[in-house]
Every structure is written in structure tokens, then in C-alpha cells.
Amino acid sequence: MASTTVVKRIFVAGHNGMVGSAIVRQLQQQDNVELVLRSRSELNLLSQADVQAFFQQEKIDQVYLAAAKVGGIIANNTYPADFIYENLMIECNIIHSAHVAGVNDLVFLGSSCIYPKLAEQPMQESALLTGTLEPTNEPYAVAKIAGIKLCESYNRQYGRNYRSVMPTNLYGENDNFHPNNSHVIPALMRRFHEAKLNNTPEVAVWGSGKPMREFLHVDDMAAASIFVANVSQETYESCTEPMLSHINVGTGVDCTIAELALTMAEVVGYQGNVTFDATKPDGAPRKLMNVDTLKRLGWSYTIELKDGLASTYKWFLAHQDDFRG
After folding, report:
1. Does 17 belong to an annotated binding site?
2. Is 79 a catalytic residue?
3. Which pathway does UniProt place it in (predicted)?
4. 8-323 is a CATH 3.30.870.10 domain
5. Which of 64, 140, 154, 270 is catalytic?
6. Alpha-carbon gap, residue 45 to 37, rounded angstroms
7. In this structure, is the dihedral angle defined by the CA atoms of residues 171, 174, 178 and 181, taken in order, positive or negative?
8. What's the angle, vertex CA 21, arms to CA 15 and CA 27, rounded to 5?
9. Which helix (H) or strand (E) holds 109?
10. 111 among the known binding-site residues?
């Protein structure tokens, strides 16, 4: 008698975003997965009634909660109420509705901004709630911390298997390349690309170039999320601290902004001079994640920065018409 494969119905919330789309690409390669996806027009994640009805109807087995309202410093400063309200509502609606519908397995994706502004480097999971947050994105960070505590609380009270992963700075396919509100990698990639096209003799990078940052390719983030979702409870508990509420996801390796810029110029093929404007703010001197917990579980990153930048630039060239203006 032929064996039957048990198919898992998996809901990826935020499947059109950078991380969500990467998770979808990897789950699509698995034979035992049936993806359940809904666009914003099909499912309003801010509506408790709509989300509860969705979970009751769809019989979901596993959830990846990658949906979030995200933005840069300007957006966070301009719309703090939107950032805290929308992220809190999305998390509460999905996590609670998943529980009510009997979903036992869920992965919540957070952000490294949950840690105190002056957290000791590299940042360990235990640094959570030990100091003051960075003021510019505090509302967003508070919402993400609430998501972690939601998962932790449903685990404690109901025995659920809701796990939280906190990524370092991400980049890759489907990133935001907007000239005014993108993060450092897509911003630099677009600037060097346009400088190459226009034969601009010099590109000035904001700051001294001395701050150090850690970067993880989004495909590695997706792989780590799926790994954490499916590692056995026995292994999870044996490799994590008692009552650990979340797991850092990163490379454990950082580089200076100057090193990043020079590597970016090489990847893009920009031949001009790269300078640094030290009159512009540097931000925090270092932001690095301690990834020892993830390594104990058995996962490490695979995509080196230069290789990841090269594949991202290839994707950017294929989609650059989407980034005009």
C-alpha cells in the first residue's frame, strides 16, 4: 500500500514583502506544503473579525508572521501612531486567531531594533528590556517586543509552539530601492548604479565610514525561519536558555560602512572615487547580533556579503524599471 504524504497548510502573512516572498520561494520547493496566501485586498490583517474568519475557514497548520508596517527613520518619526497601531493589530489578530483555531506552530519575525540603544555588543537575546530603546523607532520596537511577549505568553499559558526570530539588517530580492527612504544597502546600490550610468566622478557616502554593521541576505533569513519553525521541541529546549522568548538571526560577522561601500562599488562596476562625508551623522558605532543560540540549534548563514550583493544587483538590474523616479 502506497504511503500518503501529509500535506501541511502553511499561511505566510506578508508574502509580498521581502522576507515573506523569500519564505514563499523556499516553501514552494517542498512537496508536502500547501501555501495559503492572501493579499491586502483579500484579507485585512487589521480586522480581528476578518482574520478570525480566515483561520476558522482555512484550517491552517503552520504560520509565518512576516507581515508588518515597516519604514526608515523619516517614516518612523512622521507616522509613529501608524507604526505602533498597525503592527500591534496585525500581531494580536494573527497570533490570537491562530491559537483560537488550534494552530500549534507559528513563527513571528521581529527586528533587531527591539534591543536597547546602548546594548552591549554583540547583542544577546538576554539584552531585551534591559535599557532605553532608540527614540526614532521606539513605537515600532515596542510593537515588536509585544509580539515576542504574545508568543511567549501563549506558549506559557496554552502550551503553544510559537517561536520568535529577530533578524539583523536584511537585504536582497524585493528590497526597497526608493531614493529617499531605503536602507543602506539598496540606497548605496542605487546611488553607485546611477553614478556609473552618469559617469559621475565621485560618490560621497554619508558619515565617516567607521561604524560597523552586520548584514544578512534575505534568502538566509528565510532558511533560518523555516529551520527554527521545524526544529523539534526537544532540540529547541535543549539549545536555548530557560524561557528564552526569541532567537537572534544573523551572520555574527560585521564590516565597516566604508568596507561595504567599496565592495558595493566593485560589485556595481563603479570606477569613480568613493569619499566619506564625516560632517553627516554616523549613528551607532556598532550593531552586531550574538547568534550563538542559532548555531547551537544547528543553523549558520551560507551567503557571503559580496556574493549576496552581486545576486541582489543582478535582480535590481532585471527590475530597475520598477524603481524609476
Report:
1. yes
2. no
3. Nucleotide-sugar biosynthesis; GDP-L-fucose biosynthesis via de novo pathway; GDP-L-fucose from GDP-alpha-D-mannose: step 2/2
4. no
5. 140
6. 12
7. negative
8. 95
9. strand 105-109
10. yes
What is the residue whose three cell numbers read 517561536?
163
How far apart CA 111 and CA 115 sit, in angstroms, is: 9
Residues 6 or more apart whose CB falls under 8 angstroms from that of 325 comprise none
- The full 3-state SS of 161-230, as one line of letters, equals EEEEEEECEEECCCCCCCCCCCCHHHHHHHHHHHHHHCCCCEEEEECCCCCEEEEEEHHHHHHHHHHHHH
Q: Is 183 one of the annotated binding-site residues?
A: yes
Q: How far is CA 21 from CA 32, 172, 219, in A?
A: 18, 11, 9
- In angstroms, how far is the first alpha carbon of the chain from the final one? 60
Q: Show pLDDT as tens, one digit a residue, over the chain (325 residues).
A: 455 678 899 999 999 999 999 999 999 999 999 999 999 999 999 999 999 999 999 999 999 999 999 887 778 888 999 999 999 999 999 999 999 999 999 999 999 999 999 999 999 999 999 999 999 889 999 999 999 999 999 999 999 999 999 999 999 999 988 877 788 999 999 999 999 999 999 999 989 999 999 999 999 999 999 999 999 988 888 877 655 789 999 999 999 999 999 999 999 999 999 999 999 888 888 999 999 999 999 999 999 999 999 999 999 999 987 765 4
110 closest CA partner among 138, 68, 72, 139: 68
Is the full-model pTM beyond 0.70? yes
Three cell numbers, residue 309: 550583493
Give me the amino acid identity at 30. Q
Give the C-alpha separation, 207 to 204, whole Å: 9
- Distance from C-alpha of 218 to C-alpha of 67, rounded to nearest angstrom: 15
Q: Do 113 and 133 form a contact (C-beta atoms < 8 A)?
A: yes
Residue 170 annotated as lining a ligand binding site: yes
Known binding residue 283? Answer is no
Burial 135-159 (b: 16+ CB within 10 A, else e): ebbbbbbbbbbbbbbbbbebbeeee
The structural domains of the chain, with segments of one domain joined by +, span 8-323
